[in-house]
Amino acid sequence: MTQIAAIILAAGKGTRMKSDLHKVLHPIAGRPMLMHLLDSVDQLAPACKVVVVGSGKDQLEAALAGSASLAVQEPQLGTGHAVQQAENALPGFEGDVLILYGDVPFVPAPTMQAMIDRLNAPDAPAVVVLAFEPEDMLSYGRVITEGDRITKMVEHKDASAEERACRLCNSGLMAVKSKDLFALLSRVGNDNAAG
Question: For the chain, which residues make up each domain, given as ranges?
């Protein structure tokens, strides 16, 4: 069985929360939202868990109490850059990597396992992206496909009218082989409306 690592992104400042408490530590049903996600991750028996943090490192370190490694993203240069910060926390790791968000706490373990299973299928893609079709597409990024293969992922602000008409939206959750992850990330730029 392939080993699993989880990279959990929690570097956002959470300015809309208007709180001194780190965004992912706000309680839901009496527990920090991050802990709900870690409970689901733990059902997959991961070899390692890395939480990428920007500000609020001390709060997260105390809350995690050694249950996950911390990687610091400073400065904060986007999602791809955040994932890159986890590389040093995964020395020699060979296996499957889940990329998750600390402020998306209720991803069920079976959904994560389905992503890993797809990554290990005979016709596996290089990256598995969890996409969804919401009733209201709001400003979600779009996942453009041909058949069951992704041809493009585009932020809403950068999408053409034709791309915005696509109903398949990007959740941001991904699974990728560790041997491919950081090489693929080195090809990602920030040439988009968000910078």
Answer: 4-129+173-185, 134-167
16 is catalytic: yes
Catalytic residue among 16, 118, 167, 187: 16
Tell me the pLDDT of the chain (195 aa) as tens digits.
789 999 999 987 666 766 788 889 999 999 999 999 999 999 999 999 999 998 888 999 999 998 999 999 998 888 889 999 999 999 999 999 999 999 999 999 999 999 999 999 999 999 999 999 999 888 899 999 998 889 999 999 999 999 999 999 999 999 999 999 988 887 776 665 555
Nearest to 172 by CA among 33, 86, 95, 78: 78
Alpha-helical segments (H) within the chain:
33-42, 57-64, 79-84, 109-119, 161-164, 178-185
Per CATH, the number for 4-129+173-185 is 3.90.550.10
* Contact in structure between 126 and 184 (CB atoms under 8 Å): yes
- 29 by Cβ neighbours in 10 Å (0-12 / 13-18 / 19+) ranks as exposed
- CA dist 51 and 180 (Å) reads 20
